[in-house]
Write a structure and sequence with these properties.
Order of helices and strands: EEHHEEH
Number of strands: 4
Shape: globular
Strand content: 5-15%
Number of helices: 3
Radius of gyration: 13 Å
Largest sheet: 4 strands, mixed
Oligomer: single chain
Amino acid sequence: MIVRIMGEGQVKVADSHFIELNKLDDELLEEMEGGDQEGFRRTLGALLDAVRRLGEPLPDDALEPSELILPPESASLDEVREMLSDDGLIPG
């Protein structure tokens, strides 16, 4: 799956890694619902770090459609809340 981190670029992440990413996404959703700003910031950073670590960066000139778009690490709780679906940032 092609994942875009806003402001950074695209990364190709194997489907097998989405179990780990979905756990972080679920944790992020819980923290957002509870208004846990510190937990939100920590988990968003961990989610983005996991995508960077598990994925393979695409060249800057690649024009692949992104199947998933994640916010930048600097995004606020409210900005991320606007991006959420019922499943969180990552469907499934």
